Amino acid sequence: MVKKYTSMAYAKADDMLFGNAKFPVKTGLGLEIGAGYTTPEINYAPRPQAGKSKDKLIKEYERITTDVMSRMVQIGAPSIILETEHVEQMSNNPSWGAEVAHAQKTIMEEYHDEYGIKCALRHTIGDIREDRDFLQLRGDKYSVFLEAFEECAKSGADMLAVESMGGKEVFDYSILRNDTAGILFGIGVLGSIDMEMIWTDIAKIAKKTGTVATGDTDCAQANTAMFIAGGLLDKNLAHTTAIVARAISAPRTLCGFEAGATGPGKDCGYENTIIKAISGVPIAQEGKSSTCAHSDLMGNVTMQCCDVWSNESVEYHGEFGGTTVQCWSETLAYDCAMMNTALKLGKGKDLRDILALSDKYRDPQGYVVSYENAYRVGQAIAKDGNNNYLRAKNAALESCNIVEEGINSGKLRLTRFEINALAKVKADLVALTDDADKFMSESLTKYKQEVAVFRPENYGL
Amino acid sequence: MLDLKLEDIDGILVRYNVALEKEMTPDEAAEELYPKDELIYPIAKSIYEGEEDDVVDGLKAAIAAGKKPIDLINDALMVGMGVVSKLYDDGIIFLPNVMMSADAMLNGIEFCKSQTTEVPEPKGTVVCHVAEGDVHDIGKNIVAALLRAAGYDVTDLGRDVPVDEVIAAVVKGKPIMLTGTALMTTTMYAFKEINDKLLEKGLKLPFACGGGAVNQDFVAQYDLGVYGEEASDAVKIADAILASGNDIEKLRAEFHKH
Asked: The B12-binding N-terminal domain covers which part of the protein (chain B) (predicted)?
């Protein structure tokens, strides 16, 4: 049994700040995360043709690593994290991922030895537990999945992560049909069950290999909702619905830390400020410097409490200013220099508030993840921390309440459509039972019938 | 925390969507578009509302009144879906409404088919797939639903589809268009392999690609590629093929926006 969070790590929201975590994490070559400074984390994708063979992939990652390390030294950046998000070939063939990790770490060690730059290598294993027709969360695929973690850890990766997909089959069906109960079931219940299983095992591998189990993100679900919602003029999904999915993702992501992960959580977990408030772990975040990957209406607010600042991902190719990884790591490094300067000057909280306020009223998603509101969602989760279903429902309802307050203040101005969608989601949530067993039973019946690819045995049900 | 005054916020962001929101509610806008025929109206309205049972009830009533089941597909179900599509294109309703309406319409089509031995005539066949190595299929599912809702016969190959299986489906199905979606840069390279194999076989059909990391520059690198930025572009590209032929350059001129 994992130990669940039932209280807050921070006494109040104002105690949270970028570059500072209650429980800092030492990792890699001289790096400490959340220990009073922020660190850039560059993430990249190989060019399409690089996936054709193992040798091509290794060469591509060697180029990427050398480019980043050289640029960081050229501009005097004190620290850097490289995040290699596996392409499927690397996770399905664990030796490929391991060889890439080894090649990258060898280069990073050379730079550390020569220049003393603090650095660490994060490998994010792909969630390969799917075949063509179904999620296959347990069984043979799971064995390869865990092997990929262990091989990378043994070969040079300092930090282990994943963006897992438990619950996605029900979520994908539900989010396109405004089905609030399905969103809650997919992320908050099924996702949490899967998270507890995989992170218990990943944490064991990290302990055995002396590496850091960093955490997960609900990219597959909450970010899908965020991407579908899009910008202010997009008409694909209400942003008020998207923030409820996000709120539900926090108790799900928290399961990883309850099972043994220590942070820094993954960059694209926009739920991470909530996670930090409850757990005190350091967090990675992305925002304005991840526009190379996507647009999300939360360019600055996500920086408010980050310990690691990331660009999400950029395809490796040339730009006027160098290769993309050089350009974006440089941008990230200057962002971190600004935050670290504010900390040194004792102006950190002022900068934090400016960052939050510049996006807080832009969108209901930014409004809820603004740190003082994120803290409130955290409290709603911790209140029923031992019950995966109830805490997910609490988080969803609290996010609805927060958005309503924002609307009533006049500062968060939404369209009639968004307001109606919020009312619908809230009414759906209020109508749901407080009995987790009853909800589970009803949901199993309903989604087994409606979602052809949903297999309860994936979750031990 | 520090806070902004209400009057200061407008200088930081502009809520263009609030300013542009239509006066009319979606229900009111739909009401203006429904056909007036008293047998067709309830079917069209039930499709807009995504009420599958009501669609079937409406179809039963229309059949009892003498309408032919096969005719109701085009004269009622497609008309109702046309209302939904127009409201979506106009930015009045959102994607989940379209998906629920599409479910209701497809349910209605199945009912009509069960009431007759006649075979409905689709607008054309489109083959949809997710690139080999890629299991992320929500984008493909949206594309397939929107195409079906627009009257196309969709061959959905699913996700993580081997290149040769795509080729075989194109050879067998003779589609007017192939679609491919991908999330990762290294999986979308399969699109180029598909393109090359199609050309080897002399199959020159538009290959509409989009999703995650896919961009217009990459898609334009191979001869058959037409980039779709939004899922709804798939329907627009298919409609353009029916209207004006499958000239790739013409399609690119229309759909390549960057």
From this structure: 30-124
Q: Are strands B125-130 and A159-162 parallel, antiparallel or unpaired?
A: unpaired
H helix runs in A36-93, sequence order: 54-75, 88-92
Task: Give Rg (Cα) of chain B.
Answer: 21
Do B93 and B210 lie in one domain? The reply is no
B6 vs A172, A372, A410: nearest CB:
A410
Report which DSSP code applies to B237.
H
Choosing among A223, A235, A353, A451, which should be mutated to test the B contact, i.e. which has the most B CBs within 10 A? A235
B1, B16, B26 member nearest A14 (Cβ): B1
User: pLDDT (tens digit, 9 = 90+) per residue, B136-157?
Assistant: 899 999 999 999 999 999 999 9
In a shared domain, residues B77 and B172 = no
Residues B13-37 pLDDT 10s: 999 999 888 778 899 999 999 999 9
**DSSP H helical ranges for A222-323:** 224-229, 239-258, 272-279
Domain presence at residue B153 = yes
Tell me, yes or no, whether B138 and B221 share the same domain.
yes
Q: What is the rounded distance in angstroms from the CA atom of residue B73 to the CA atom of residue A287?
A: 47
The verdict on B246 and B152 lying in the same domain is yes
A424 touches A181 (CB < 8 A): no
Domain for residue B73, yes or no?
A: yes
pLDDT at B212: 84
CB-CB contact of B235 with B150 (8 Å): yes
One domain for residues B95 and B58? yes
- Choose one of B115, B133, B161: the last residue of a domain: B115
For residues A70 and A326, give the distance between their C-alpha atoms in angstroms, rounded to a whole number: 8
CATH number at residue B217: 3.40.50.280
Q: Is residue B8 part of a domain?
A: no
Q: Looking at the structure, do residues B193 and B91 belong to the same domain, yes or no? A: no
For B160, nearest residue in chain A (alpha carbons): A132
pLDDT in tens, A376-399: 999 999 999 999 999 999 999 999
A 10 A CB-CB count for B5 gives 7
d(Cα A210, Cα A127) in Å, to the nearest integer?
A: 22
Mutant choice from B186, B194, B230 vs A, greatest count of A C-beta within 10 A:
B186
Contacts of B145 in chain A (CB under 8 A): 176
Nearest-by-Cβ selection for B95 from A176, A361, A372: A176
Query: pLDDT tens digits for A47-58?
Result: 988 988 999 999
Residue A2 is predicted with a pLDDT of: 83
Residues B27 and B143 in one domain: no
> What pLDDT is attached to residue A14?
98
CA distance A44 to A299: 19
Residue indicated by tokens 């050879």: B171
CATH code: domain of residue B62? 1.10.1240.10
| Residue B64 domain flag | yes
Q: Residues B236, B242, B244, CA angle at the centre, nearest 5°?
A: 95
